[in-house]
């Protein structure tokens, strides 16, 4: 199995309390991976480390063999769990800005996805609903051609009807040799698109593997297994 992201004894502590506690992990290339766990399990910390927004306390994390930094920003498309876009800009401005920032950004793909949503490219973000802003943000992320997409709770803030669109957008807009790493606690909504899972609990990996293998081994769906693993 060829991996796109690798962690070796990775630890990240805040005030001596570990958010990630010595994890070892390989994320396979060419797959849609669910990074699954309850709130506070370390999912966002792991993504921020991979995006180069945090530095490890101990251990290491690499993307295609590189430590997160200037070089990896060209090969990773990261979407945080909060809308980070400037409210005074419109979708057209944002698409042009992203094209200026990233040589691997496709304006044609972005405008095509915006059109399918019937979003007015001249409408300022401040007059859009939260769900529409999140869709615009996802479109900007998925319009890049990169080996690794990392999405933090991409369906957490939108209504159930919009979740199908968002998942379809993710599935239909990445190269087959690329990897999509989706952090979420809404397992039932994304289970049918996942190839691989990582269960995080209290900063430790409690299960990882191919989705079909895990279902066969446990006799449970990923959603059932998650509920069993993380029940209070």
Fold topology:
Elements: E1 3-14, E2 17-28, E3 32-36, H1 43-50, E4 58-63, H2 70-73, E5 76-79, H3 91-101, H4 107-116, H5 130-142, E6 148-152, H6 160-172, E7 179-184, H7 187-190, E8 196-201, E9 204-210, H8 211-218, H9 222-229
Parallel strand pairs: 3-7, 3-8, 5-6, 6-7
Antiparallel strand pairs: 1-2, 1-4, 8-9
Task: Characterize this entry briefly.
The chain is of the alpha/beta class and 232 residues long. It has 9 helices and 9 strands. The two termini are 34 Å apart.
Describe this entry's structure for a reader.
The protein has 232 residues and is α/β, with parallel strands linked by helices. It is built from 9 helices and 9 strands. It has helices spanning 43-50, 70-73, 91-101, 107-116, 130-142, 160-172, 187-190, 211-218, 222-229; strands spanning 3-14, 17-28, 32-36, 58-63, 76-79, 148-152, 179-184, 196-201, 204-210. α3 packs antiparallel against α4 (107-116) and α5 runs parallel beside α6 (160-172). The longest helix is centred in the middle third of the chain and has 13 residues, at 130-142. The model has no long low-confidence stretch (mean pLDDT 89).
What is the tally of helical segments? 9
N- to C-terminal distance = 34 Å
- How would you spell out the order of helices and strands? EEEHEHEHHHEHEHEEHH
Q: Overall pLDDT, averaged?
A: 89
Dominant shape:
globular
Question: How large, in whole angstroms, is the Cα Rg?
Answer: 17 Å
Which range best describes the helical content: under 10%, 10-25%, 25-40%, 40-55%, 55-70% or over 70%?
Answer: 25-40%
Number of strands: 9
Structural class: alpha/beta
Major sheet size, sense and barrel closure: 6 strands, mixed
Beta-strand residue fraction: 25-35%
Main sheet strand line-up? 5-6-7-3-8-9
Low-confidence stretches: none
